[in-house]
């Protein structure tokens, strides 16, 4: 499945609002809006729901995390192969709520590429973003941890973190696309993110915790539809 841009990637995290059947309902809402508007909306369900959700929707589904181990004797680990078998198109890795070491990111990015999986490496500063871009993932997602879950959008509160990341990535590896995340909630936040040079956003609470998921997603993408 080809991933289009701008990309809206909704991370379900470990929120109870998006667990099990509720996770499927949210993924279905994302799929409906995506089909009606032509905007690429991807989801990162909880790992326990990955295969179940990926089998039921036709939008890109990402894993929230993978481990750097190959298939084998690794109890409790999540392999890239298992994520691919589950129907995911790719994986996030190194989220600030699920950090892994840089050498592990390196292994994961290389193995994902050989398996045809798309990688989104999360980062916390422009410098770390540049370092991770050097590893050659498909995307990096810059997220200042202090803004995560606050509703204060990185694209408006810390635009310099986003622009510095975009500039550094251009120098280090211009093939790597940049997303930004943390506090992204409304269309204006997405528009600001795109103006700063990103190709999209990674968000969670603004949608997952919204009372009306469809309304929240439609609001998010409203500036892109109008273009
Ligand atoms: O993966 C998503 C990010 O951590 C942002 O979370 P948030 O949208 O709840 O601030």
Automatic annotation (TrEMBL):
Q: Which Gene3D superfamilies match?
A: Aldolase class I
Q: Which residues form the active site?
A: 95 (electrophile), 143 (proton acceptor)
Q: What is its EC number?
A: 5.3.1.1
User: InterPro entries recorded for this chain?
Assistant: Aldolase_TIM, TIM_sf, Triosephosphate_isomerase, Triosephosphate_isomerase_arc
Alphabetical GO CC annotations of the entry are:
cytosol
The record's annotation in PROSITE patterns points to: TIM_2
Which biological pathway? Carbohydrate degradation; glycolysis; D-glyceraldehyde 3-phosphate from glycerone phosphate: step 1/1; Carbohydrate biosynthesis; gluconeogenesis
| Keyword annotations of the record | Cytoplasm, Gluconeogenesis, Glycolysis, Isomerase
What residues bind substrate, as annotated? 11-13, 148, 183, 204-205
**Catalysed reaction(s)?**
D-glyceraldehyde 3-phosphate = dihydroxyacetone phosphate
Q: Which domain of life is it from?
A: Archaea
- Drop me one GO molecular function for this one: triose-phosphate isomerase activity
Into which EC class is this enzyme placed?
isomerase
Q: Which Pfam families match?
A: TIM
Q: Main subcellular localization, coarse class?
A: cytoplasm
Q: Mind telling me which HAMAP family this protein's record contains?
A: TIM_A (MF_00147_A)
Q: What does this protein do?
A: Involved in the gluconeogenesis. Catalyzes stereospecifically the conversion of dihydroxyacetone phosphate (DHAP) to D-glyceraldehyde-3-phosphate (G3P).
Q: Which family does it belong to?
A: Belongs to the triosephosphate isomerase family.
State the protein's name.
Answer: Triosephosphate isomerase
> Source species, please?
Thermofilum pendens (strain DSM 2475 / Hrk 5)
């Amino acid at each position: 499945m080809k991933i289009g841009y701008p990309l809206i990637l909704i991370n379900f995290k470990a929120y109870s609002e998006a667990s099990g059947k509720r996770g499927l309902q949210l993924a279905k809402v994302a799929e409906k809006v995506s089909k009606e508007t032509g905007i690429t909306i991807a989801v990162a369900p909880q790992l326990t729901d990955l295969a179940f959700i990926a089998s039921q929707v036709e939008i890109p589904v990402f894993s929230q995390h993978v481990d750097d181990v190959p298939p084998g004797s690794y109890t409790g680990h999540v392999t890239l192969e298992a994520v691919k078998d589950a129907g995911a198109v790719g994986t996030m890795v190194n989220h600030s709520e699920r950090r892994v070491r840089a050498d592990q990111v390196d292994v994961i990015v290389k193995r994902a590429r050989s398996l045809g999986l798309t990688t989104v490496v999360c980062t916390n500063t422009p410098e770390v973003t540049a370092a991770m871009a050097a590893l050659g993932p498909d995307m990096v997602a810059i997220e200042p941890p202090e803004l995560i879950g606050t509703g204060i959008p990185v694209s408006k509160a810390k635009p310099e973190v986003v622009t510095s990341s975009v500039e550094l990535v251009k120098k280090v590896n211009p093939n790597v696309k940049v997303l930004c995340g943390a506090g992204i909630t409304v269309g204006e936040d997405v528009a600001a993110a795109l103006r700063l040079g990103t190709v999209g956003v990674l968000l969670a609470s603004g949608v997952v915790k919204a009372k009306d998921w469809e309304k929240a997603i439609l609001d998010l993408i409203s500036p892109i539809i109008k273009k």
